[in-house]
Predict the 3D structure of the following.
Amino acid sequence: MRGPALLAAALALGACTTTAVPPRECPHADWRAVGLADGAEGRGRDRLAEHRANCAEVGVAPDSEAWEAGRQEGLEAYCTPTVAFRLGVEGRRMNPVCPAALRPELEAANDLGFREGLRLRRAEAWLYGPYGPGGWPYGWPRPGWPGAPWPHRL
């Protein structure tokens, strides 16, 4: 039961932390939550350096132990075949932050998702063409199709 709750929390936090922690928030930041969001996004340890640079402006150092503990928890949500497949469908590869023992399974899921995403994009292009739904400029139906104002007078 911990997995779904962890994933929901990481995704909720991930929506707000796509950039490093702003300097004005450094003194009050929950570094474990920041690490959790960074881990759920598949961020590496180099992300802490970005937080350090931002927080140095206000003279605050991030709590690296709490951040790393949160990141490791977030990586549990990131390093799953479901996330690997979803990233593949979106045309993205996974960041190399997952344990070596999981990499073959995750790479296989990511490759499968990548192929599925490519298939979906090709089907969409075939169905809709360059003009979007209907396949004709400005949403008009193609001549000769039901609802066309000029069925055969082109």
